[in-house]
Specification:
Length: about 220
């Protein structure tokens, strides 16, 4: 069993190809679109209603037909998600030759990566895998995360990003920057980010930094 190295890929501008058009392929396609993939191509003789709708709206390019090896030319990611195990292996082998990373839906041993359960809260992205041991458990833990980290985390992360940009411009001392940003993250986890007042964004940031500095000083004494 592979150890799996987790990473977060920027898929903008990269060609992603899904071979197959059933419910599993649809899930992979939706997860690509959720990740802002801009060039998603699907090859399958039959597709779900959902995939057909995504093609109609222009979110994906669909070729209705059986897979041909040249379909995956230029791909960076390839998903082999047909109901035919031999064909899925063929797709994976052709992808390897082309240097593309592959996912094989019915046998993870043949692919380069597995798809985790993904929870998104704006820029906060959580991914859970069991490496194929129990997709149902990965999904269940994903649901637990959803309950623990609610939709408010999208706003929290946005504010922490703003604060971080502000702090990097305003504070020269790297130790002080680190202490304040760690404290701000603790506030986000404790749910106390909403106490900010101030008339403009810059005022709010200055006030927040003042408060964090005071808290950091209190900690040191
Ligand atoms: C190895 C992997 C390869 C890959 O697809 O990358 C794979 C493989 C297989 N899945 C199977 C079954 C199920 N898959 C799900 C659900 C999900 N499967 C996903 C990923 C993965 N599935 C990769 C490993 C992930 C990991 O373990 O961490 C998720 C997380 C993400 C996604 O699909 O995008 C998504 C949840 C999304 C969410 O809810 O967040 C459910 C649950 C359900 O349907 O409710 C079931 C039934 C219950 C069960 O089996 O647990 C079968 C057997 C088919 C058969 O029996 O014929 C195989 C084939 C095999 O095991 O060889
Ligand atoms: N990774 C995962 O999360 C899961 C994986 N699976 C496995 O994934 C596979 C797909 O599952 P489903 O979507 O439910 O299957 P499905 O049978 O509903 O769909 C298979 C799709 O493959 C297409 N297809 C068949 N021959 C093709 C060809 N020559 N070229 C291109 N496309 C072709 C069909 O038109 C159809 O759209 C199955 O092997 C299943 O065992 C099943 C459940 C979960």
């Amino acid at each position: 069993m592979a150890g799996y190295y987790p990473l977060m890929l920027d898929l903008r501008g990269k060609t992603c190809i899904v071979v197959g058009g059933g419910p599993v392929a649809e899930r992979k396609i939706r997860s690509l679109l959720d990740a802002d993939a801009e060039d998603v191509r699907v090859i399958s003789p039959t597709v779900t209603k959902g995939i057909a709708e995504l093609a109609r709206s222009g979110s994906i390019q669909l070729r209705l037909g059986e897979y041909l090896e040249q379909d995956i030319d230029g791909a960076r990611l390839v998903f082999a998600a047909t109901g035919d195990p031999d064909l899925n292996r063929c797709v994976a082998a052709a992808a390897v030759v082309r240097g593309a990373l592959t996912n094989v839906a019915d046998d993870s041993a043949y692919g380069d990566f597995v798809t985790p359960s993904v929870i998104r809260r704006g820029d906060l992205v959580m991914a859970v895998t069991t490496g194929g041991a129990s997709p149902a458990l990965a999904s269940g833990i994903g649901r637990d995360f959803m309950a623990r980290y609610g939709p408010d985390y999208a706003g929290k992360v946005e504010r922490l990003r703003e604060l971080r940009e502000h702090v990097r411009l305003r504070l020269a001392d790297p130790d002080e920057r680190r202490d304040l940003l760690r404290l701000a993250a603790e506030e986000a986890l404790a749910g106390s980010l909403d106490e900010l007042t101030g008339s403009s964004d810059a005022d709010r940031m200055d006030e927040w930094i003042r408060r964090l500095r005071a808290a950091a000083d209190r900690r040191q004494t």
